[in-house]
Amino acid sequence: MTIRALWIISQEKGENVSIRFSRRFSTVEHRAKSLAGSSYVAVPEESTVLQLLLTELGLSDPDKAYVALRDDCLHRPRSPALELRVDSPEKGILWPMLVISQGPLILACLPLVDVPPEPRPPLASLLSVSQGLTLLAGLQTFLLGSGSKPDGEGLVSRLAMLPSVLLQVCPLGTPLDVPLLGPPATPTGPTSTGNQKQPAWKTGLHRGRAVVNVALTETVRSMQYGNRSRQDLWDVFGTVLCKCEVEGVLPNVMVTLSLPPNGSPLQDILVHPCVTSLDSSILTASSVDNCDSSAFSGPYKFPFSPPLEPFRLCSYTSQVPVPPILGSYQLREEENQLHVSVSLKLHESVKNSFEYCEARLPFFNRDQMGVVDVKVSYGQLDISKEKNLLVWVLGQKFPKSHEVTMEGKISFSGPTHGPSDPLCTGLTAYIKLYFKVPDMTLSGCSVDQHSVQVYSSAKPRIVTSRELISKDYFIWNSTGAAPVSSGQMVM
């Protein structure tokens, strides 16, 4: 596995984003050109790479409501392996561009992929992706340490040391001392670490009380149209974040994910490169395959030797039968007045205990709000006439009926024009839901405290948690022309 190029980008608040360090490996680039043949895409200039990365990460043009490279519905970003679409001088796609960020730095590298670009191979089959992420994680720890970010002078001195560090850990673009693939060691008692070699990707050892934190978060997205001619869409994306403060050079930890008896199997599973072994049936489950009774449904065991810093152990998708909150939204316009009718219903399978839950109704491309005569059956309604926005705060629980409604009229007769949006004109409008449900996942996936095994001389304190949060959860006005989706929603 080799690296074509590497970049360290500074994104300190209040300062211009800039490339603080970059390195290209001409011998690897020559190999890339030979392997790709006519489909070869050269790595562009630094300024072009910086602009493409910032656009892909959503950090450029924050004031623009629509940026084609970032917001086009045909564009499906897949973190952490991004694709950069180069427009000039040679059009093409750079993939996979690996990116991680923490604090003031963004670290990116472009590994060499020695298989044909079409059809694009799955990430799980590319060793270069796992080892490239391992290299970035090691450099991240070297630059920022395992605690808070270093002061400005400390970061400058470590950046100055990078050329000599790369000569040792990545000579001629080939990373050394990355974790070896193979079965995990399972010692039954305390082991001596005196003969173990300190890997280059792990720059220090933990000293002190042993603590293992495992946090499972599921994010649900939804596009609901309220129209029989349009199919509602939703998807679930899960991540398991870990922070393991365990003594030893290469301590061994195992985290097990479990599903309820009737739960849908996890799919599209990606794991951190520190995972030492994995059942092949776990990686073969994909959302594009038909889910049948023979699919692997757990338990999902992840043995690994953790880095010092917090990291994402794995990610997955899940197919669930219904979204957590079903909504209906109708607008009727008469002269300069809107009749609003909203109904929200919490599905019976969802825990009725929120950390927060609110619905926002923006009204674009109209005069400023005038008279607002709107009533809600539950919760509190906040009105922002300057922003042409209704915020319906539902709080921490739905009523016993699990259903709430909003009815009323809104006139637009203010002295100024309200906010604009090129997407929402006329009756094309939406409700966006924001909610968080602690101690619950939509798939039913969980990580039990007693299922976390740590092979270490010191018995650690184990903390586990799970939560369900919303992201891009839209309910479109059924009487308006909602945007056309490009197909199944992809994380």
From TrEMBL:
Keyword Acetylation (UniProt): no
Domain MHD, residue spans: 209-476
Chief place where the protein resides: cytoplasm
**What's a single GO BP term from this record?**
protein transport
Tell me, what's a Pfam family for it? Answer: Adap_comp_sub
> Where does the signal sequence lie?
none
Superkingdom of origin organism? Eukaryota
Q: Which InterPro entries match?
A: AP2_Mu_C_sf, AP5M1, MHD
* Cellular localization per UniProt: Cytoplasm, Cytosol; Late endosome membrane; Lysosome membrane
UniProt topology in membrane: Peripheral membrane protein
Q: Per the record's keyword annotation, is Membrane included, yes or no?
A: yes
> Keywords assigned by UniProt?
Cytoplasm, Endosome, Lysosome, Membrane, Protein transport, Transport
Q: Name one GO cellular component term.
A: late endosome membrane
Question: Assembly state and interactors?
Answer: Probably part of the adaptor protein complex 5 (AP-5) a tetramer composed of AP5B1, AP5M1, AP5S1 and AP5Z1.
The family annotation for this protein states: Belongs to the adaptor complexes medium subunit family.
> Could you tell me what this protein is called?
AP-5 complex subunit mu-1
User: According to the entry, what is the taxonomic lineage of the organism?
Assistant: Eukaryota, Metazoa, Chordata, Craniata, Vertebrata
